[in-house]
Structures are given as structure tokens and as C-alpha cells.
Amino acid sequence: MKNRFQHYSSQCIILLAVLFLSTCQYVQPPEKIHDGAEILWDTWGIPHIVARQDSDAFYAFGWAQMRSHGDLLLKLYAVARGRGAEFFGEDYLAADRSTRLLGIPNLAQEWYERQEADFKKNLAEFSTGINDFAQQHPELISDAVKAVLPVTPQDVIAHTTRVMTVFVAGISECGAVLPGFDFYDQPVASNGWALGANYSSSENTMLLVNPHLDWGGLETFYEAHIVLPEVNLYGAALVGSPVLQIAFNDHLGWTHTVNSLDGCDLYHLKLVSGVLDDGYWMDGVKQNFTVTTETIQIRQPDNSTESESFLIRRARQGPTINHEGQILAVRLALLETPLLTNMNQQWWKMGHAVNLDAFQKILQGGHLPLFNIIYADADKHIMLAFNGIIPIRGTGDTAFWRKPVTGDDSRLIWTETHSYHDLPKSIDPASGWVQNSNGAPWYMTMPFLDKARYPSNITTDVTNNRELRGLQMLSAHQRMSYAELAAAKHSTRALVADQLLDDLMAAAHASGEPSLQQAIEVLNHWDRQYLAESRGALLFSVWFEKWVERTIAKAIEVDADFVFLPEQLLGDLFYAQPFTPSEPLTSPRGLADVSLALSALHDAVNELQANANKLDMPWGDIARLRRNGVDLPGNGSSTELGVFREIVYEKDEDGKLKSSSGDSYIAIVEFSQPVRAQVLTTYGNATQDNIFKMNNQLQLTADQKLRPAWRTLKEIEGNLAMHEHLVLNSSISQERKPAAR
């Protein structure tokens, strides 16, 4: 322990000693530090938590999340109990039913009892920090959520379990049948890169952290910094998590991207007589459902409550749901094993690891239910591991399991999951880099992995134009500098324009149609970017949307049973030359149906002119970064257009487009000495009104800039907005603003 403590920088030790003094002057040795925890709030609203022991840091992290996101956190915990409708009305009833159906509150109680003693204490302290803040600062949270209090450690586990279940269901066929467990039509996406010493210009490894999630609700990121005697940990977590889920320390760091794993299956049950009460068939033998009833309270507009008796039937495969007249059993791998019990503890341990061997040993526990893990360290190692709690299925490929399978064959009921060793990964590849932007794991580096080496039913074989754009940028460099990495991260070039625009303009010109000549002029001068000032981006976006719609409609005309899948966007339905793994940098390309594309362009021109939009309106005039009254010119666009800088916009009340998801928490980390890092939480680090003013991170988003990650005493002290000293197991909390300088 002593050697590891000495390995950390003297700045961390000084920070521990100094924080108890309002003048921030070092006048006493660290062994004289008082008990409790410190939170130094910087001008961006980032809590820098300093503590001597883990449990104190957990207490402070709960306290900090309440100060920044109290209303949101309590609402999320209520929904995780399956009691959202009880507190907030009927809009939450569907989510409550799914939460109860899957048994998440009961699993949370069971899994809390299974926690190791030290981590059980940490969870208890996290919830205590939440409750103490609410007790001492009732004026800072709304009356609507106070009834949710007090929060328990079981709530914390239920919430993190529900969040992961939503992710796994949402990327599989199960999301369509579980109300409240979809992603509300917002795609989950991310970019993650790790650059090795033989690819990095500085010969230091670098890490790109770039998750893309919805800008609200359970997908909201919270940026924080935790300093303990043995670790200086900086990163982000989804609100309500007791631990940082994406982070870096002085030795290593990691990020996550949502992977394309298949962790949930549906089974079409065959009822004995068409009546649920008579049971279902399994291997030719009649089976009875296990039946339980739960009562859900539903708050009415007049604040009275009504009760609903919710009947839950469970088959051998899992709980059942009536979906479009079919009785389906839902089987989620993360809920069918006890592995998820230690999910939060695994993330906490990952943040304390000091090298690749230790990090991989932690990953072997297999407690994280999904996500690719993209890793880099100060010892010059990089890694990408396709990770998750994935069933071992004895038969069938992904296409077979993507649809409901027959529920009367017990051989299809899997019971085991793949180990960490079974799953695709790449460590220190010859290319010098690993990457993922939500494609299949074989595309994590070049040359691509041999997918034949892995089970055919662990993931869909999918990539997307955003990932192909990333591969282009990585392949264009022999070595990449820190500045070039930052520029690549912010790239708004539309790969789809490079694939299709020349064909489209040539066809429009050849048509001789007068209404298309102005469009040709605009698109010919467009920079093929989605910058605020880019003229032609709007026209291309409207054309692309109509082109996709018309192409799908044409496919349905040919085959009434046609079902569009996102991966088909790169196929021969749209492109003359579809995506080919042997040509990842030049395919797909060319229009599959030129006349259809021209028709879509004609419609796009007419729509923009009818809405009084100029064909060459700057992108930022229509696409707006909007949040909490801030309204700024936007940049970036969607995965479908092949834009690496993903910001998704949706129609606002005034007819313009407002940012709704995409770039969320960003970090670019270089494992130099000392570690160099720039970060951003695009939409800001609080949804709660606060007692100190925070700088506007949305402006940095508009400017395509990041900010330094402050991890040393000098940096934090120079940007201090407020200082809190928390004394645990006491009603005492001191809040101090920095002394005038």
C-alpha cells in the first residue's frame, strides 16, 4: 500500500492537506487531515471530491449529484422502484409495468444483500449523502420529488440495473415490446478511439472519449473528479450512478461505446387452449405459469391516487407480455444471472487499476452487461474489448435470434453466458489504433478481425457511415498528434456526400430540369460540412431524408412484408456499390436508383421553397443548440449522413431544429507525464438551479472547443466557485466561497 501511495503525485497529497483551509494555504501535513470529505466546485460546475476513504467519497458523490441534478435523480429512482406513476402520474405507468414485470426492485434487494461488506458500506454512504443533502437543503429541490425520499442503497442498485436493462433492451428486439424501455426514437451511439505509441506523434498513448446519448433523462452524463490517497480519478457517470463509468487516472483510462451485442431474446409461447390460465406447451408437456400480482398506484391530476392490479405471468424463459396478440416471453441475460450484482463495484475497481494486467483481471469478472471497452495507458498499451453479458446459444445465427423464436422447445432456453476470454478483442494491434463507432467488433482495427473465429450469434454484422468516416480519418495519418485528434473528433464532413453527391449533381444536370439547376449550384459550392456557416447542408439533409423514405417505400411496394433495418442503409437497396469489408475506405458509393434520387431532390427543393427557406441557408441558422434558454448556431449532424461529430436535431415549435442528442461527454486524454486532458459536457453539468453561477459549456459546443480537465490543486484553486466541507454522520455541512484574491 505504501509504495502505491508514494507513486501518486505530490500534488494529490498536498491537495488532501490543503482543502480544509478556506485560504487554501498548505500549512499542515496530510496526516492531520480531518475526517469527512471536501467538494471543491469549479466554475464549470464540476465537483472535485477529496476524501481519505472510499465511503467518504461515495457520500460526497451522492451529495454532489443532488446539488447538480436533485430533481432528476429522485425522479429516476422513483421509476426504478416501479413507482413513477405513484409520484408523477399516468405518463410513467408503462415504465412502471415493465420495471415490475422484469422484477428489478426485487433483484435490487437481493443483489444489495450480496454486496461485499466494504462496497455495501459505500452504497449506503452514497444514499446517505443524497438524503442528507435533501434534509439540509430542501429549498434546492422541488416539492414534486420530495415524496421519493428517503433514498436507499437498494434504489441505487435498482436504478443502475434499470438503466442497463433499458440499454440492452433498446438495442435488441426486446425494446419494441417493453413499454418505457426503448430510447424514444433517439439512437444510442458513441465514438471511441485509443491510439498507440507507434501511431501517436508524441509516442504517448491517447484516448478519445465520445459517447452520444440523449440530452436528458436517464442518459444524462455527470462529470466529476474524485481524489483519494491512492487514485486521482476523473470522468463521468450517468446521473444516479454511484461510480464513474467512463474515467481516467494517472496510469490509464477507458471509454465505452454501445456495442451491437444480442443480450435479449423473445420466445413465442404456444398456449394450451388459447387461454393463458390453461398454461403453455414445452417439449409437448403442459406447463403452468408462475403468477404474481403487484399493485401499482397511479397519481391522478387532482392528486388523488387509483390502484391497478398488475398480473405478472412468468414462463420458464422469463416474464411474459402480450404484444400484438402474441404471448411472448422475455429473456434478458443481465437479469438471468447474478453477474450484475457487482457491476458498480467493477467500475469502481477499474478506476483504481494501474496497468493493463490489473485492468483485464477486473474485466474478467464479467459484471458489465454491455459496452465495448476502449482502453489506453501510460505503459504504451491500447486495447478494445467487445464486452457484455451475452448468452451462449447452441444454435442459430443472429438473424435467427433477432425474431421471436418458438417457445415450446427447451433446447432454445440458454442458461450460460460467454466469458471475457470468448469475446473479440484487440491489444496493441500493428495499425497502432483501435476504434469503435457502434459497428460490429471485427471492424475495431485494420486489418479487420476474422469474424469466423467468434460465435455467429453474439452480435449483428453491422457498421455505419460514421464509423466508416472514422476509419477514413485514422487511415489518412501515419501518425496523429493531439491537435489532429481533437480536429478529427470535431469533424463535420458528411461521408454520404462524398459517396453520392457527384452522381446526384451529374444526374440533375443531365436532366435539364430548371427547378434542379439552382440546387446544383448550391450543392456544387457546399463544403460538404455541417458547420454553422455551411451553405447547402440543409438542402442535402432534406434530400437525404426524402431519398431514404422513397427508397424504403419502393421496397415495400415490391414486398409488402419488407422490414427496414438500419444496417441496410449501406446496402444495395441504396447504393450501386454496397459496403464491402474488403473496401472499407471506398465503399459504399453510387446511387442505386438515379431517377428516384432525382425525384427526392425535386421534392426537397419544393419543400424548402414552400417553407420560405433559402436553398443555401447556413446550417446554423436552422440547426440550433438549445438548452435552458441558450440558443446558439449548431454544427454536426447524424450518423446516417456519415458525420463523425454527431449532434441529432429535432423539429422545435418555431420550425427550426433543436439539439436533442449526440455528443454528450467528451474527453481527449494523452498519457504523458503529467497526464494531459481536455473535456466537455456539452449541455452543462447541472439541471438544478444552483447557488453559484456556472460557465456555459454549450457555447464551447457551438465553438467546437474543449476545456482543460483541472486535476491539480493549482488549477482547481484558480477556478474555484464554492468549497464544501462535509462531515459525515452529522447535520453539519459548511459551504464556503473562495476568499477574494
From TrEMBL:
Annotated family: Belongs to the peptidase S45 family.
Protein name: Acylase
GO molecular function: hydrolase activity, acting on carbon-nitrogen (but not peptide) bonds, in linear amides; metal ion binding
Signal peptide coordinates: 1-27
Keyword field: Calcium, Hydrolase, Metal-binding, Signal, Zymogen
Active site: residue positions: S190
Binding sites annotated in the UniProt record for Ca(2+): D262, D265
Upper classification of the organism: Bacteria, Pseudomonadati, Pseudomonadota, Betaproteobacteria, Nitrosomonadales
One Pfam family in the UniProt entry: Penicil_amidase
Known cofactor(s): Ca(2+)
Biological processes, Gene Ontology terms: antibiotic biosynthetic process
Organism: Nitrosomonas supralitoralis
Co-factor remark: Binds 1 Ca(2+) ion per dimer.
Chain segments annotated as transmembrane: none
